[in-house]
């Protein structure tokens, strides 16, 4: 059943906040109801349970609109912008994602629902980035999906394991020491 | 104050289990005491609080003894073993690490204590691996610490974001599409 949009928004906002603050496993429908000033009955009229509510939030209501990284006129500049764009997206959203990690590994039905339905827009813009570089005649061989995974991997590691700032120096270092050398190698261009 | 070693071990084991099951934020000294069949007073005689107990566990009592990946006789073989070794280490330990993630981002004093004191052995063996390859005359330029970060980044991403198996096919793909091409580029060798 649909709810009044303002009420639905309040419940989704409360879910997002609690997911960041206490994580999926610890968050209860009780808490969500209190935070959203809604009754539990109202929540259950719209969603069968906590899992369905979270899947709906992540798949349909997280702001996924992000401008694609701009054309800077060079492959190096575009790569720095791509890494930076992913860093910024992660800094906005890592609370919710971290709140889900333990559940993703420990709750197979939630994990499957999210992996199947959650949108995974390419925030790095790797495909248009490589297409622009090839048009300019720059050494930019390889598969955009591999470039995307590599950028995402380096940024996540820096945030979670390194615990170090996602700043411009990091983006430039990743580009100069990993991404550009790899693109050169993928293109068969001598270093 | 030191405790009887068997009692200390039981408390540390209970902490490790609860960290994996419920995470740092949700774990209480009460729960640890119950699980370890110890009194809270006993725990407080040895550690000032939950944070100190977790820092002690992670820094001094997680099994960090892992055999270094073997010399397979070739750079490619050694890289596949290095990725596999890190996958195996992560599969044994990711429960504890995941239990700490939210606290690492939300609890600066715990994060600082862990980042300062936790051992970070290089489970990939990147330095001896590159040294062996150079001795064999293989194209293995570059900084071992960069190779290590790259392997760790790809494996963590696969586990957390991709949610896909850390199997041999993944290790070989990472080696053939990312690590070997990058080492070639770092060595200034044409692809």
What brief labels describe this structure?
homodimer, 191 residues, mainly alpha, Arc Repressor Mutant, subunit A, 9 helices, 0% strand, Tet_transcr_reg_TetR-rel_C_sf (chains A, B), HTH_TetR (chains A, B), transcription regulation (chains A, B), DNA-binding (chains A, B), TetR/AcrR family transcriptional regulator (chains A, B)
The rounded Rg of chain A comes to 20 Å
Helix content of chain A: over 70%
Number of domains of chain A: 2
What is the N-to-C order of secondary-structure elements of chain A (H for helix, E for strand)?
Answer: HHHHHHHHH
Approximate shape of chain A: elongated
Low-confidence stretches of chain A: none
The average pLDDT score of chain A comes to 89
Biggest sheet statistics of chain A: none
Report the total helices of chain A: 9
């Amino acid at each position: 059943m649909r709810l009044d949009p303002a009420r639905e928004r309040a419940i989704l906002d409360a879910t997002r906040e609690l997911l960041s603050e206490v994580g999926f496993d610890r968050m209860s429908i009780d808490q969500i109801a209190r935070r959203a000033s809604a009754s539990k009955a109202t929540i259950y009229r719209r969603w069968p349970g906590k899992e369905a509510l979270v899947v709906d939030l992540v798949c349909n209501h997280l702001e996924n609109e992000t401008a694609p990284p701009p054309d800077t006129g060079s492959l190096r500049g575009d790569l720095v912008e791509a890494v930076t764009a992913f860093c910024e997206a992660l800094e906005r959203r890592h609370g919710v994602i971290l709140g889900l990690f333990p559940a993703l590994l420990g709750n197979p039905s939630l994990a499957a629902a999210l992996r199947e339905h959650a949108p995974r827009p390419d925030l790095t813009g790797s495909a248009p980035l490589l297409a622009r570089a090839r048009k300019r005649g720059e050494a930019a061989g390889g598969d955009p999906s591999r470039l995307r995974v590599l950028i995402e991997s380096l940024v996540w590691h820096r945030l979670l394991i390194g615990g170090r700032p996602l700043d411009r120096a990091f983006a430039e270092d990743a580009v100069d020491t990993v991404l550009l050398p790899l693109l050169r190698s993928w293109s068969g261009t001598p270093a």
